[in-house]
Write a structure and sequence with these properties.
The chain is α/β, with parallel strands linked by helices. The chain has 10 helices and 8 strands. β7 and β8 form a beta hairpin.
Length: 318
């Protein structure tokens, strides 16, 4: 990265996020960023922070439950304080890595929103909105996406649910008690959240204009990670077995690729939601480009965040 500063990453404690953190921390002096690790406070966050410090990085742990928008707002305020006090270098990149797939779409976040949509999408929209004016250009926002929003031959064969888009206010509403939990419903919710990330990336770039480049990274299929830890035991066992197939992506392989998206000059030109699958710039499916849906998502996101006591405000003149 031409200008080495600070990188904020969510979900830094396990799998993809952990390996991305360690890859950034392991960079040579002069190319190593300061790191802001935003995740659940506790042993895992402290452990990865200590590992990164052991590699030479300057690290700040910021405890935050992304299922609570109040927590997200508090984390953003902490980041702003660190930047204002000069405790870290200028904020040059934000990596929205954290993600879950709730096994029960009736489960709600602290703010009453469907948990997968709340953590994967709304929390990051809140964080980015709160920190927009804290970036120093040139800066990057890297969102972690997924190809699950559409079903190709292999996903159909494996019964991977594709997105079933609806108005975002509906997507944010937990399922009713009449809908039993199941992997199909949770898969659809996950794919909807990942399609929302693509829509959001396109609209975010329109809103922020120059100075901040927005891109989306797909780490490849990584079965067996903690993403599906709420799934039935049989499904988790099958995922772990699939994860041992040669050529399947792993956090150890994909983590450094995510780090490169945030830091390397190779990717500095990417903007407008450019979609990178591991190391390949890839055109998304036509369904993922829809200006009307993107505008509606932006409006609905502001409504949802305001309903949780916050607002989505970007000062594009700063």
């Amino acid at each position: 990265m031409t200008e080495t500063g600070t990188v904020l990453i969510t979900g830094p404690t396990r799998n993809l996020g952990r390996h991305a953190v360690l890859a950034m921390a392991d960079r040579p002096d002069g190319l190593r960023p300061d790191l802001l690790l935003v995740g659940r406070a506790g042993r895992d966050l402290t452990a990865v922070a200590d590992e990164a410090r052991g590699l030479g990085a300057r690290v700040h742990e910021i405890g935050c439950d992304l299922a609570s928008l109040a927590d997200v707002r508090a984390a953003a305020a902490t980041v702003r304080g660190l930047l204002t006090d000069g405790a870290v270098r200028p904020l040059r990149a934000l990596v929205a890595n954290a993600g879950i797939m709730s096994a029960d779409t009736r489960q709600a976040s602290a703010d009453g929103y469907e948990l997968t949509f709340a953590v994967n999408y709304l929390a990051h929209a809140q964080l980015i909105g709160d920190l927009f004016t804290a970036f120093t250009a040139p800066a990057r926002v890297v969102l972690v996406g997924s190809n699950t929003y559409h079903a190709n031959f292999w996903r159909k064969l494996l019964h991977v649910a594709e997105a079933e888009w609806a108005d975002p206010v509906e997507l944010a509403r937990p399922a009713g008690d009449e809908q039993p939990p199941g992997m199909s419903a949770s898969g659809v919710a996950y794919s909807n959240a990942k399609l929302a990330i693509l829509f959001y990336a396109h609209e975010l770039q329109r809103q922020v204009g120059q100075g901040i480049n927005v891109s989306v990274f797909e780490p490849g299929w990584m079965p067996g990670t903690a993403l599906g830890r709420g799934a039935p035991a049989a499904f988790q066992a099958m995922s772990r077995a699939l994860g041992r197939i040669p050529g399947v992506s792993t956090p150890r392989r994909s983590g450094p690729l995510l780090a490169a998206m945030a830091l390397d000059d190779q990717w500095s030109h990417l903007r407008a939601g450019a979609f990178v699958v591991k190391t390949k710039l890839t055109e998304v499916q036509p369904v993922a480009h829809d200006p009307d849906r993107e505008r509606r998502l932006w409006e609905a996101t502001a409504q949802l965040l305001a309903g949780a006591g916050a607002s989505l405000v970007l000062d594009t003149e700063t």
